[in-house]
Amino acid sequence: MTGKPLAAIVSAGLSRFGKLDGLSAREIFQQAGKEAFDRCPNLDPRKDIKALFVGHMMESTEHQGHTGPMVADWLGLNPIPASRTENACASSGVALRCGIQAVASGLADTVIVGGVEKQTHLPTSDTTEYLALSADNFFEQWHGFTFPALFALIARAHMHEYGTREEHLAMIAVKNHSNGSKNPKAHIQKEITVEQAMTSRIVASPLKLFDCSLISDGASCVILTRPELAKKFADNPVYVLGSGQASDTIGLYEREDLTSLKASILASREAYKMAGIEPKDVDVAEVHDCFTIAELVAYEDLGFCAKGDGGRLIESGETKLTGSIPVNTSGGLKSKGHPVGATGVAQAYEVYLQLTGQADHRQVKDPEIGLTHNVGGHGSTSVVHVYKTSK
Amino acid sequence: MEEIIFERDEKGDILPTIQNFYKFCGQGRLMAVKCTKCNKLLAPPRMLCPSCYSSDLRWIQLSGRGQLRTYSMINIAPKRFASQVPYTVGIVKLQEGISLPGRIMLDKPGDAQIGMDVIVDFEPAQMDGWPQLPRYFFRSVNKTSG
Question: Range of B44's domain?
């Protein structure tokens, strides 16, 4: 018996992900907004939408802050309240939660939540530096730790503790590229082999180039409303049943256990409890694979397998499109791309497509329960949402 | 060497700040603070104990000895570190029970091992403005020379 819905998703939009030359963040956001508006003809955006929340991490890339009112303006939504959330790579997962809070509290009947990032126009070294802002400046960045290195520290600890192998990580990259090859909006729509992944150049040992997600431009949005209003806007809305968010130390080094993200464990337990479900009930999941090791650890933190069994789960094939718990059907951050501020809501977009049967060549068979898992930094923030079809 | 001036409170005690932590590094000392109320040991230092909310925290010197919990060798680095690749970073569990991240200097690049003994050392002081303060780092302990 599942819990009472917090909110309903009645539409969703996603820009193409990738190197979107010549387009600024607000213009990319317009692409996502237009798809969501077109998909929902019963919605009159200017009349119905009462608030906007947008996730955005790196304002320095365009020298453009104040993202909330900027994207509201460009979507023709003035004068509704428009706010930005910044939680590193979990910025829009948090925006989604803010939108749910607004709807569930009765403060606004219908809201638009989304995320955006524009970063491919800069040299990679600059983007790397900006992305590292989500780690502990004084003790990690200042000593030359990069983001891949921080996840490499987790990978090394996991390998040491549980016998996880580099091949396991490569299998995750292969799976996600295979899914991404079926997603026309993905940044890289190309399959890869385990051998390609294993022989790609080392970024921060043991992580290689093919263990890292992509630096992408992109935007995402969903339209949320009160569950009782959902059918007014959509025949088959998707209901948000549970929402969990937790925080952890800003420095990785202060954690007792380097092989899991405690914030993900706590956020998922909160979301499961609220939704009245267990991990085994999840039919399709989008998890935060900023690095392949992050997906492997997420299997364990979200309860898809026992602690230490992440390597065995990827090996079993059960997280492929045809498996019992398909993970990252969109291609994930690894293949679809990772425009950081857009990622959390882009995960919700994919789950919306899956639960409404609109995922085309990557459609999972009749899923009823979906999950999204969005991580900020090396787990200083984690946000988990649980969704259900209208069936 | 340029004189190191610590920020102090009205009683003259050295404030438990991150900047002062690095100023101690400039003197060749790896320091933590200890909460006088609940005895919690904190490095980096904090001005407020996260366990009991006391603001009475006192500096103590750490042994600087510990063991490597995990590590990575970095091949692709941001601009300001690019000339140093490949270099190794890790997390060290100090004898006092707390962990610090840092660069790991090895005799041979690539011969780091989880559990290996390391000891703290310090870069020459370069006091050219916050946060450009002297860094601590760790080096492997040579077993033969102890």
Answer: 18-61
My answer on whether B83 and B24 are in the same domain is no
Same domain, yes or no, for B48 and B82? Answer: no
A290 is catalytic: no
Query: What is the pTM for the complete model shown?
Result: 0.97
Chain B residues with CB under 8 Å of A297 CB are none
pLDDT tens digit string along A214-238?
999 999 999 999 999 999 999 999 9
B37 and B82 housed in the same domain:
no
Task: Identify whether B134 is part of a domain.
Answer: yes
Same domain flag for B77 and B126: yes
Task: Round to whole Å and give the CA distance between A94 and A100.
Answer: 10
Write the pLDDT tens digit of every residue in A120-164. Answer: 999 988 888 888 889 999 999 889 999 999 999 999 999 999 999
- The three-point CA angle A96-A293-A258 to 5° equals 90
Tell whether B12 is covered by a domain: no
Q: What does the block give as tokens for B54?
A: 């006391």
Range B65-87 burial, b when 16+ CB lie within 10 A, else e = bbbbbbbbbbbbbbeebeeeeeb
Q: Check if the interface score ipTM surpasses 0.90.
A: yes
Question: Which residue in A158, A177, A187, A338 is the catalytic one?
Answer: A338
Chain B residues at the A interface, defined by Cβ less than 8 Å, are: 18, 22, 44, 69-79, 81-82, 84, 87, 89-91, 99-103, 110, 114, 131, 135, 137
Query: Is residue A89 annotated as a catalytic residue, yes or no?
Result: yes
Domain match, B74 and B101 both:
yes
Gap between the Cα atoms of A147 and A299, Å rounded: 21
Residues B77 and B45 in one domain: no
CB within 8 Å: A153 and B135: no
What is the domain-level CATH number for residue B109?
2.40.50
Same domain, B30 and B52: yes
Residues B55 and B75 in one domain: no
Residue at B121 is within a domain: yes
Tell if the CB–CB gap between B71 and A125 is shorter than 8 Å: no
Q: How many structural domains does chain B have?
A: 2
Euclidean distance between CA atoms A325 and A279, whole angstroms? 10
**Chain A partners within 8 Å of B104 (Cβ):** none
**Which burial class, exposed, middle or buried, applies to A293 when counting CB atoms under 10 A from its CB (0-12, 13-18, 19+)?**
buried
Find the closest chain B residue to A129 by CA distance: B78
Domain annotation for chain A: domains and CATH numbers: 7-123+214-388 (3.40.47.10)
CB contact under 8 A, B73 and A205: yes
Q: What is the mean pLDDT of chain A?
A: 97
Question: Is there a contact between A253 and B101 if contact means CB atoms under 8 Å apart?
Answer: yes
> Are A386 and A5 within 8 A, CB to CB?
no
